[in-house]
């Protein structure tokens, strides 16, 4: 049965161009078990492609007859070709992480074929240290970043001996719980309820826009235009690294902050260092757009987008690290307080109102030419605390690979895994040179906050 896309999901299709492919991804590293045969990675590939059927949302493609995907629906691809979507690749010797990240940078820059289900997965062998990698990308109209990570991780085993179906196997459809009906009362809330939601959600945005511009409470269009906020090309540079969660927690305990506070402070410090190296630091604080998930982990398989976004000051104009952290904490406190006072229906309206200018800017070509709504996107995705396995192979690390837009040339996303925070930094390699230096700057920014 065809399922119509929501306004938010359709928006990601409308915004897509050759320079701005609208997919998100993940790069997972796995250990080859001791004593495994030489064709072990080939056996993993066979496990991934030898499936009898494909489950939702992996078997769904876009069907649309109107411009800008105004009538877009998800329909089952009757001619699904698993060999197109799952591919086997190898790194050139010596197979360093450097070569792996270069390959992922190129793969992530390529658009997905809109005539097929909007996802691809690459099994990559030849990684030094007796490892292999799995890079998977999915269109943002198919899943948001949080849902995509949770979906893939939920298809991995917590025990090395367990053998689960491939992540896209049709066997997973049989495991799904039936979706609860909304009921007549919920489906017919009425015009009065809709108008009240518009009034309250719009009121939240108006109230934010009235906040003092020089304060730590931020909203859209309160960000300076910087080197990050130019037009982008289709070229990408991806950098990734793991940080000990224990180190970050210790820094948070030292300064009365959360893991997220320290993570944002690391990003603020790294951005300050990077822009100083480019002689491009603004005297106004950079503003991050931070996605907030509205869906629980067990709802990841439903597809679509269930997020809102908030704006947070990164205190990049403040040289003293502890004062910068305090500004970030103050900004986050205001965000949490406001969201806590809003009902889900108000948040939905607020999300549409604050993201509509972003979509219009991309579609009309104004983004990157006018004042930015924010400076960059920064996301923190909670991940599994236990060790995961792919058909017996232990997952060593998992790195998020997000997207960049015209006017927003950098994205920093982390996902937690066991006792690590896994950082994925992606940007336009032509607009922002030497993005890999962010890894050094993130470490320096953490060191200055440690006990």
From TrEMBL:
<dbReference type="GO" id="GO:0071731">
    <property type="term" value="P:response to nitric oxide"/>
</dbReference>
<dbReference type="GO" id="GO:0001666">
    <property type="term" value="P:response to hypoxia"/>
</dbReference>
<dbReference type="GO" id="GO:0005886">
    <property type="term" value="C:plasma membrane"/>
</dbReference>
<keyword id="KW-0808">Transferase</keyword>
<feature type="domain" description="O-acyltransferase WSD1 C-terminal">
    <location>
        <begin position="304"/>
        <end position="449"/>
    </location>
</feature>
<comment type="similarity">
    <text>Belongs to the long-chain O-acyltransferase family.</text>
</comment>
<dbReference type="InterPro" id="IPR023213">
    <property type="entry name" value="CAT-like_dom_sf"/>
</dbReference>
<dbReference type="InterPro" id="IPR014292">
    <property type="entry name" value="Acyl_transf_WS/DGAT"/>
</dbReference>
<dbReference type="GO" id="GO:0006071">
    <property type="term" value="P:glycerol metabolic process"/>
</dbReference>
<keyword id="KW-0443">Lipid metabolism</keyword>
<dbReference type="InterPro" id="IPR009721">
    <property type="entry name" value="O-acyltransferase_WSD1_C"/>
</dbReference>
<dbReference type="Pfam" id="PF06974">
    <property type="entry name" value="WS_DGAT_C"/>
</dbReference>
<protein>
    <recommendedName>
        <fullName>diacylglycerol O-acyltransferase</fullName>
        <ecNumber>2.3.1.20</ecNumber>
    </recommendedName>
</protein>
<comment type="pathway">
    <text>Glycerolipid metabolism; triacylglycerol biosynthesis.</text>
</comment>
<keyword id="KW-0319">Glycerol metabolism</keyword>
<dbReference type="GO" id="GO:0004144">
    <property type="term" value="F:diacylglycerol O-acyltransferase activity"/>
</dbReference>
<feature type="domain" description="O-acyltransferase WSD1-like N-terminal">
    <location>
        <begin position="5"/>
        <end position="262"/>
    </location>
</feature>
<dbReference type="GO" id="GO:0019432">
    <property type="term" value="P:triglyceride biosynthetic process"/>
</dbReference>
<keyword id="KW-0012">Acyltransferase</keyword>
<dbReference type="GO" id="GO:0051701">
    <property type="term" value="P:biological process involved in interaction with host"/>
</dbReference>
<keyword id="KW-0444">Lipid biosynthesis</keyword>
<dbReference type="InterPro" id="IPR004255">
    <property type="entry name" value="O-acyltransferase_WSD1_N"/>
</dbReference>
<dbReference type="InterPro" id="IPR045034">
    <property type="entry name" value="O-acyltransferase_WSD1-like"/>
</dbReference>
<dbReference type="Pfam" id="PF03007">
    <property type="entry name" value="WS_DGAT_cat"/>
</dbReference>
<comment type="pathway">
    <text>Lipid metabolism.</text>
</comment>
């Amino acid at each position: 049965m065809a399922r119509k896309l929501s306004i938010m999901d359709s928006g990601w299709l409308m915004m897509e161009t050759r320079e701005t492919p609208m997919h998100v991804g993940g790069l997972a590293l796995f250990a080859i078990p001791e004593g495994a045969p030489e064709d072990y990675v080939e056996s993993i590939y066979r496990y991934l492609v030898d499936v009898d059927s494909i489950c939702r949302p992996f078997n769904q493609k876009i069907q649309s007859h109107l411009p800008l995907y105004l009538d877009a629906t998800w329909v089952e691809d009757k001619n699904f070709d698993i060999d197109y979507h799952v591919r086997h690749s190898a790194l050139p010797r010596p197979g360093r992480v450097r070569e792996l990240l270069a390959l992922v940078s190129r793969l992530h820059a390529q658009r997905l074929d809109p005539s097929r289900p909007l996802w691809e997965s690459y099994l990559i062998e030849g990684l030094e240290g007796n490892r292999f990698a799995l890079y998977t990308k999915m269109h943002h109209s198919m899943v948001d970043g949080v849902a995509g990570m949770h979906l893939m991780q939920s298809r991995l085993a917590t025990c090395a001996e367990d053998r689960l179906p491939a992540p896209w196997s049709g066997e997973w459809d049989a495991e799904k719980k039936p979706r609860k009906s909304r009921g007549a009362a919920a489906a017919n809330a009425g015009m009065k309820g809709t108008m009240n939601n518009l009034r309250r959600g719009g009121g939240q945005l108006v109230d934010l826009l009235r906040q003092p511009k020089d304060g730590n409470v931020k909203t859209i269009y309160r960000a300076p235009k910087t080197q990050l906020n130019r037009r982008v090309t289709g070229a990408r540079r991806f950098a990734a690294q793991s940080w000990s969660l224990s180190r970050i927690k210790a820094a948070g305990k030292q300064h009365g902050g959360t893991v997220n506070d320290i993570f944002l402070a690391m990003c603020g410090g790294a951005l300050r260092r990077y822009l100083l190296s480019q002689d491009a630091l603004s005297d106004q604080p950079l503003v991050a757009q931070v996605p907030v998930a509205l869906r629980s982990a067990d709802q990841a398989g439903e597809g679509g987008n269930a997020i809102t976004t908030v704006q947070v000051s990164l205190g990049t104009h403040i040289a003293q690290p502890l004062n910068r952290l305090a500004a970030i904490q103050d900004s986050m406190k205001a965000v949490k307080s406001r969201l806590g006072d809003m009902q889900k229906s108000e948040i939905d309206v607020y999300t549409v109102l604050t993201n509509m200018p972003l979509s219009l800017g991309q579609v009309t070509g104004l983004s990157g030419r006018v004042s930015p709504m924010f400076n960059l996107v920064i996301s923190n995705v909670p991940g599994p605390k236990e060790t995961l396995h792919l058909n017996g192979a232990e997952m060593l690390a998992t790195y998020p690979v997000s997207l960049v837009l015209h006017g927003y040339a950098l994205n920093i996303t982390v996902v937690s895994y066991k006792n690590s925070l896994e950082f994925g930094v992606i940007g336009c390699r032509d607009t922002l040179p030497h993005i890999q230096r962010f890894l050094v700057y993130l470490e320096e920014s953490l060191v200055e906050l440690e006990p």
